[in-house]
Amino acid sequence: MLKNTFCHIPGVGHKSEKRLWEHGVTSWESSLENPTEPNARYSKESFSECINESMERLEKRDSTYFSRLLPPREQWRLFPEFRSSTAYLDIETNGFVGPRGYITAISVYDGAEVFTYARGKNLDDFKRDIKKYRVVVTYNGKCFDIPFIESYMGVDMRHMAHIDLRFILRDLGFTGGLKGCEKTLGIDRGELNGVDGYTAVLLWNDFKKNRNEKALETLLAYNILDVVNLEPLAVIAYNRKLHETPFEASHRLSAPVSPKVLPFKPDIKTVERILYQQNRYFTEAFS
């Protein structure tokens, strides 16, 4: 889809882009061959210069060039071209922000492998490993995960383009947080149904206080599920956004295959115990 995109060119809006498509200018290559004047504010020469630069930047895998120029609601167009160098990312914290807040776990999924980073174990390895990716996909990461990582770990994430599915899915009419979107779109969490961000904090506290390794493993299993589920959500969002373009039939992506084996599994007894504590707390707090 990126090679069919013109709205990243300054002065070309959605209406201009649509007119180009309607006149048969449907790709960067065809725009160089078509003599149609693309925009009253552009000469053919200056428009072609922008197209040639786009081709060069894509060849260099410069995702941030396109991310800076694309409107926020069109960041989804980056997805297929950079999918092989995409990190699906999610963090867990101790439930606080500011000086008292810290990251307890980070999970990254690249479409093939899952990588986990836990406080007190290998969290600092994340700083090195994240540098190899060109795009990061999150849910609400622009407001939470990425600023938290940059502030707490001192990591500059500006080397990556950022596709935040929260805003793309909201544009498509899906709300209710990550879990709500998953449920609406038929993605089942299995043994971790009912576990949420507050549960994750309780799992960390259980591990920290009681050195319960099963609690940590369950926390990591939950965090991993968050990132593994981002890929099918990204594909669904991308395919639905294609409805707005002439490329729905030709550019549609197949559903991804989720990894069959994950590095951590939830401990059901631990989940049941923590959920009981969580429900009891809310019952007492609001009774």
Describe this entry's structure for a reader.
The protein is an alpha/beta fold. Helices cover 46% and strands 10% of the residues. It has 13 helices and five strands. Strands 3-2-1-4-5 form a five-stranded mixed sheet. Helix 9 packs across helix 13. The longest helix is centred in the C-terminal third of the chain and has 18 residues.
Keywords:
287 residues, alpha/beta, 13 helices, 5 strands
Strand content: 5-15%
Strand order, biggest sheet?
3-2-1-4-5
From the helix content, strand content and strand pairing, which structural class follows?
alpha/beta
Unreliable runs: none
The amount of helix comes to 40-55%
How would you concisely characterize the structure shown here?
Helices cover 46% and strands 10% of the residues. It is an alpha/beta fold and 287 residues long.
